[in-house]
Amino acid sequence: MKFRLAPALLAGCSLAFGMPAAHADEIRVGVIASFSGPYSSWGKHIKEATDLYVAQQNGKAGKHTVKIVYKDVGGNNPARARQLAEELVVRDKVQYIAGLEFTPTAMAVVDVATQAKVPTVINNSGTSGVLARSPYLLRSGYTQWMVATPLAKWTAEQGIKRVFLAAADYAPGNDALIAYRKSFTEAGGTIVGELRVPLNTTDFSTYMQKAKEARPDAMYMFMPVGPLSVAFIKAYVERGLDKAGIKLEATAETEESELAGYGDAAAGIVTALHYSPASTTPANQQFVNGLKQKYGQDRVPNVGSISAYDAMQMIFQMIRATDGKRDGDKAMAAIKGYSWESPRGPVTVDPATRELVQNVYIRRVEKVGGAYVNQPFKTYPAIRDPGTKME
Question: How far is it, in rounded angstroms, from Cα 59 to Cα 46?
């Protein structure tokens, strides 16, 4: 659906972008995230990692002071996301936007970003093709194609022949199923069943029974990180699929903060993702230690944390490249091809697609130092989003 800014807002937007910032030395960055509602853990991780990055830079990008303006979208609410994006541009005079955990909320701000020429870094939408909707979009997370494809290849390499697929019934879930199915069947495997699960599902018992009856060697799942992932994994254990010898595979669903609650039931789950807090690289150890020192020793970063942290890395680079001026085109030109050493590993912004080129790690839930972690044990380096080739 195409949107247009209301005439009054559009006029205000044009005025804002035709004049210097209200404070010449202050660059405002808007962050739209879920600080309330069932997905409020996303907002917590995003805010903590954002504030950590800004603090580590002493609040400045070059000579310019950076102010973060937070807005609560309260979950997967596209209308609210669009409203907040308009407020940030017109009322708060932001030069950059970040956040946006869901594909529908990310899509809702596309026209605002385009008309106002505001570089917007999407933290988490996993749907391929989103960035093609506007030349002012970037992504600091990953796509389902990027992680499902290496996981399917690794699965076939282990001699697993039969896999059952289950995914939440929305755009990233559809991408997850297509990507895994394509890669696994090309490697000689067989998909013995597929399920698309409504986003409001609370009882997974019927789905687990169908998966069990298909007698696969493994089951690949995709659910949004949070309540659905927790409910799915608990149902997998409670319905005895683990005892039936059906291995469980996933991507981000084995959220670190939930692993303690699963106990021994989560041991052995294999996932593919672009990040693990268990990584021992110096950049990641600095990131993890920084969060613990700032917020407490119980803090463990996740995909929301790393996406928010690297979104700020990208935005600060654009601020430096433009010397703080309001110039969305120059900022976007400057970020294309930009490379840095992230806590997730080496990262480059693909100049052609604006997607990140990054490592994908095959991880296994293991007990390390008395606690369960997603322990990486194999790396697929410099993965590009193969889904963009399918558009």
Answer: 17
**Is residue 1 one of the residues assigned to a domain?**
no
- Residue 310 neighbours by CB under 8 Å, 6+ apart: 140, 342, 344, 347
Instruction: Kindly state whether residue 2 falls inside one of the protein's structural domains.
Output: no
- Label residue 24 by pLDDT band (50, 70, 90): very low
The CA-to-CA distance between both ends of the chain, in Å, stands at 18
- Whichever domain contains 315, its CATH number is 3.40.50.2300
- Please indicate, yes or no, whether residues 251 and 383 belong to a single structural domain of this protein: yes
Q: Tell me: the pLDDT tens digits for 199-212?
A: 889 999 999 999 99
Tens-digit pLDDT profile for residues 268-286: 999 999 999 999 999 999 9
CA angle 102, 105, 107 (to 5 degrees): 105
Co-location of 17 and 135 in the same domain: yes
More confident residue, 385 or 19: 385
Confidence class for position 15, pLDDT limits 50, 70, 90: very low
**CA dihedral angle for residue 290, residue 375, residue 349, residue 387, rounded to 10 degrees:** -140
Question: Quick check: helix, strand or coil at residue 32?
Answer: strand
Residue pair 233/17 in contact (Cβ under 8 Å)? The answer is no
Q: Give CA–CA dist 164/184, Å, rounded.
A: 11
Q: Are residues 99 and 151 in the same domain?
A: no
Q: How many CB atoms lie within 10 A of CB 323?
A: 12
The verdict on 155 and 220 lying in the same domain is yes
Rg (CA), the chain: 21
> Residue 80 gets which letter from DSSP?
H
Q: Into how many domains does the chain fold?
A: 2
Same domain, 201 and 350: no
Residues 150 and 136 in one domain: no
> Which domain does 56 fall in, by range?
7-142+281-354
Q: For 364-383, write each residue's pLDDT tens digit.
A: 999 988 889 999 999 999 99
